[in-house]
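TEACHING EXERCISE
Course module: macromolecular assemblies
Task: Read the component lines below, then compare them to the predicted structure of the full complex.
Student: A.B.
Group: 4
Components provided:
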Amino acid sequence: MSDSAAIAIEFVNVHYRANGSRELISGLNLAVHRGETLMLLGRSGSGKTTTLKLINRILAAGEGVVRVDGRSTAEWDAIRLRRHIGYAIQEAGLFPHYTVEKNVALIPSLEGWETARIRQRVQEVLQLVGLPFDQFADRYPDQLSGGQKQRVGLARALAADPPILLMDEPFGALDPITRAELQQEFRQLKERLSKTVVFVTHDVAEALLLGDRIALMDAGNLKGVFTPAEFLRSTDEAVQPYVNAFRAAQQIFNSGA
Amino acid sequence: MLILAFFFSIDKRQILTLTGEHLWLVGISMLIVVAVGVPLGILLSRRPGWRGIVLGSTNVIQTIPSLALFGLLLPMPWLGARADRLAILALSLYALLPVVRNTYTGITGVDAPVREAATGMGLTPWQMLWHVELPLASPIILAGIRTATVITVGVATIAAAIGAGGLGEFIFRGLAMVDNSVILAGAIPAALMALSADLLLGLVQRSLVRVRH
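Instructor-supplied answer key:
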């Protein structure tokens, strides 16, 4: 509590179960530091996406407290909380009836920004994600490639300049080359933006590449939080299968070369 | 339509008057259907538990033969006083189902990721409705309105049976006189009206879809 200014998001003994079924999150304690990129790593069904949705209150914790900027999410107005937090998902979820520009401009315009400021901001964030405004502003989502959709999704999440960014496997559905491209760009982007990012992935390599820290989840439990270096050195039995898989992939690559 | 008068030796002015009455019955009924049906469809998308009752009862109304529905409403106090009021109520009830059902289907058919992103971005339920759900559902809602309008143009000919006027007057008169040309003087303009409503709303519908491209 003493260093609450340094903590952007905090889970205190959080439990979540989907109406009456088994526990999806059991007794989660986790602190996300301001400005860091925390990767939530785990298999399908490990509770990482559920954890993410507890932050912007798409799901509400059954027990325990989730704090954002020192305040319980239950006390936040849900709409204010969500506009304080950018959100990018795997399918991008762009509005198909809006142009790229309108997609990105929606939240700033709902927030009552002036037209000139909105336009300037849209240009800025599209530039940031590598899409020239003149070329892309008037396109509709179905005129974009998968990678371009993800870029627009990210630009939209950044539009109102939220201090926190949640990303749910944003590069998961892309082809390997586009994925690698976007990962590299995101690595540079996050350094420049200095936002607090919580990033869900099932890909060890992605977690190691993009994370300042990696939170490993399994069956609704947090198995530990590691820096990438610690993760690779860890003898923890929960970490081992991931490290082994990562090393095996590397070895195949090395022996082939 | 005036050409018909020469063919069937029927007063042109009467064809115009009855066509006007017919249009009025259909127009007012459709305004009511849209004003009631679209909000009802939106409500159903928010309270899926009510779907069975609402869609079920609008469906049952449609199974009542139209002539019987007009007759059943006749004894109602305020409505029975004026045939056109009664006809408008019956027509509106009759046309409700396609509009309610299509509104509900259109709104619940919005892609889950689009909905999830919109919620996560912090859209209020009203903003979601206005910026996401209604625009995306509009081609489907319009298809429902189109179906309902065509049904109403046809059913409105029955309104003449309770003295509410419209092109049905010719049809019933022709039946009574056993004169096909009088029947056709009502049936042909009604058919043309249904076709042009279908065509017109079809164009609007297509332009709504094309907005995305």
